[in-house]
From TrEMBL:
Function: Catalyzes the first step in hexosamine metabolism, converting fructose-6P into glucosamine-6P using glutamine as a nitrogen source.
Name this polypeptide is given: Glutamine--fructose-6-phosphate aminotransferase [isomerizing]
Gene that this sequence comes from: glmS
Keyword tags: Aminotransferase, Cytoplasm, Glutamine amidotransferase, Repeat, Transferase
E.C. code: 2.6.1.16
Organism field: Lactobacillus leichmannii
Length: 359
């Protein structure tokens, strides 16, 4: 039940620290070693390429997963929209392994790809929140997100669970392949920092509501920008905001704006910039300048190590590869508060269903 919450979306945002802790307990032992079905670890280790298929928010979690898998396993990883891959099947490597990310386990677009994978004898894993769901039953293997039921149409805790679970699997596979960085990666500590960090962010939600009221509620459009993992988060953040608030929002690789879209920036256009990538932090600052000088209202969401005077939302410090677990949370809250303050039905945006069982 919603308990004292007005909407499930906020309840589910607030549950994310508990979800991080549960995944850590369920999938890492006391010493921090992954506890993942050996058959799954073996099967992924033997792959020469990982293909992740999903839709919507789960697709965006896959974009983050790609960065983590490539870093920790050295296995090239591709991410595709299930809806596209179903009818334009990508060219396969010799030993592909498929991962389906799906909160519900029922998404029709993903089922089409899985059916084709099964015809071709390609091994597959479904990461899902719903035990016994169709994609879980039809794939070779399943890993459960253990995030608890997600009721709001807008997906929040399933996204962070998918990012964390991909990190756990990547570490397990990397260790199996003898990768030193994977062995050294203290994911147990990382997930505990994520739990504490998310808690700190949700405890500061009043400030985020003020930003949403001031900059987003009055606006018809908005942009999210970021580089690296922040680019992936920018796409998810944009989907979340447009889905529940009906504000037209695009998520962009920060430097791409100046290749065309910057012409849309006017006085007061909200541009929300994410900075968590050590390699490109300064470059993104430059992109902020470009839009600010054209009148944009810039909101910054910045990892503590990169924070400067005047930043709006400063995130606790965390490993770059886990940064999505923190940076996405203020964007979920911005979406929630924009929708709520517009008087909309946050949990049931128009034209949408929780799981999309048609192609
Ligand atoms: O159940 P799934 O993860 O397969 O669902 C995929 C998308 O339909 C879903 O993530 C959708 O994009 C959400 N409503 C976004 O908040």
């Amino acid at each position: 039940s919603k308990g004292t919450y007005e909407f499930y979306m906020l309840k589910e945002i607030d549950e994310q620290p508990a979800v991080m802790r549960r995944l850590s307990t369920d999938y890492l032992d006391k010493a921090g070693k992954p506890v993942v079905d050996e058959k799954i670890v073996d099967a992924v280790s033997q792959a020469d390429r990982i293909y992740i298929f999903a839709a919507g928010t789960s697709y965006h979690a896959g974009l983050v997963g790609k960065e983590i898998f490539e870093k920790l396993t050295g296995i090239p990883t591709e991410v595709g929209y299930a809806s596209e891959a179903g009818y334009h099947f990508p060219m396969m490597s010799k030993h592909p392994f498929f991962i389906f990310l799906t909160q519900s386990g029922e998404t029709a677009d993903s089922r089409v790809v899985l059916t084709e994978a099964n015809k071709r004898g390609i091994p597959s894993l479904t990461m899902t929140n719903v035990e016994g769901s169709t994609l879980s039953r039809e794939a070779t293997y399943t890993m459960l997100l253990n995030a608890g039921p997600e009721i709001a149409v807008a997906s929040t805790k399933a996204y962070t669970a998918q990012v964390a679970l991909q990190a756990i699997l990547a570490k397990a596979v990397g260790e199996k392949l003898g990768d030193q960085a994977a062995k050294d990666w203290n994911l147990k500590q990382g997930l505990s920092l994520a739990a504490e960090g998310i808690q700190e962010i949700v405890d500061g939600k009043d400030k985020i509501e003020e930003l949403a009221k001031k900059y987003l509620v009055p606006s018809r459009n908005a942009f999210y920008i970021g580089r690296g993992i922040d680019h992936a988060v920018a796409m998810e953040a944009a989907l979340k905001l447009k889905e529940v608030s009906y504000i037209q929002t695009e998520g962009f690789a920060a430097a791409e704006l100046k290749h065309g879209t910057i012409s849309l920036i006017e006085d007061g256009t909200p541009v929300i910039a994410l900075i968590d990538d050590p390699v490109t932090a300064d470059l993104t600052r430059g992109n902020i300048q470009e839009v600010a000088s054209r009148g944009a209202n810039v909101i910054t969401i910045v990892g503590k190590q990169f924070a400067k005077e005047g930043d709006n939302i400063v995130l606790p410090e965390i490993d770059y590869y886990l940064s999505a677990l923190l940076s996405v949370v203020p964007t979920q809250l911005l979406a929630y508060f924009a929708s709520k303050n517009k008087g909309l039905d946050v949990d049931k945006p128009r034209n949408l269903a929780k799981s999309v069982t048609v192609e």
